[in-house]
Amino acid sequence: MTLKNRISLLVSLLFTILFGLASTVIFVLYSNFRKEEFRDRLEIKALSNIKLLVNVKEVDDQLLKMIDQNSINKLYDEKTLVFDSHYKLIYSSIDDAKINWSVEDLKYLKKHKTFFKQQGNYEVYGVFYDTKDRDFYALISAKDDYGKRKLLFLRYTLIISYIFFTCICWVLTSFMVKKAMNPLSTFHQKIKKINENNLDTRIESKSNKNEIDLIANEFNFMMDRIEVSYQKQKEFTAHASHELRTPLSRITSQIENTITDSATSAKGKSFLNTILSDVNQLTELINSLLILSKIDNKNHEHNEVHRMDEILFSAIENLNKSFPDFVILFEMEESDNLDTALEIKGNKNLLEIALSNVLKNACVYSDNKQATVKISTSEDNHLIISILNTGNTLSESEQKNLFQPFMRGANSKGTSGFGLGLRIVQRILNLHNATITYSISNINTNLFQLTFHS
To answer: Is 294:338 a contact under the CB 8 Å cutoff?
Structure first.
């Protein structure tokens, strides 16, 4: 998960949790407030009934009317019971509601003075009232429909608000974080494009107050040091390779002259041929290293347009001089855009080196001294040069490191080389906005595809 998505997720989750907790606390507090308020109303009603009984000596119809009138429009579906000190019911309101009670409830009232409990849809309040002469117990129950409707309305309001504002929070957080992280995304895209051929790339920074700009500045300082070190390394490789070519050329010339001398014995010529082969391999290695150092140098011109089929034919012709027994089968796919795709802007010599190295690789590792070269175009009108040969294929681990310097697979036993040919090909193609891939198209079949992007 990217940092941008992680921040969006964490902020949104934090808001969701906090808003959910706040809504829950609000609902619980209001629910408790509603109960306390209704309890107070029941208590006032119960005490008023008891006081009427205490103050009026005789309980008659007139008293009942007074009590009923006192309770009208105040409590919904109310039921009131009043008991004397002997737990005898001395008053019951005239409605049809019922209160489930027992003597144990009254004894509990005498001990604890009050209680408040839920009984089905009703809420029951009990109170113990003592006077000098007598003790009274009052039980009153009613429905708080008004309060519960407000509580239900609050619940739905909180739920809808929670869902609505949570969705808005997730969308806005994602948008704001994405906008805030745009400089970092640009930073990432530029870094991803940096390779050994464009170490001079730098990241723009507007100020030193922004953390991303601070990282960009430090990154630029690091790239300055890396570029200097890399340039020194390339210069050393180029100078060393160049200086080594001269003595090797003299050694080669002297060995060849000695071999052609009639005074040299047959045994000596055989020994000198072995040395000459080793010197030629060393010369080839030095030439490869020199080519690699020059490829990294940006002095090559890439403004001229060349036809890749002509460069390919030239590479095949040069390869036949070194491997006259090697047969190359050539195919060209018919396409309306092929002529345009064959025109590539770049350095002709480097492109010919790249094609020669791939063809030489197909020749060396072929089991029948034969390869197939095919020119075609992709759906995007990109030029594709496919080079296919039969022989031992590479394992998955070897394929991952195929284009690394000095990498040689298990199928290279018995063949000369240093593992730099394909690395040189990849470097040259990178300079020309092209790629090379390796795949196993069939059993014991190696396929290299060079794709030139227009």
So the answer is: no
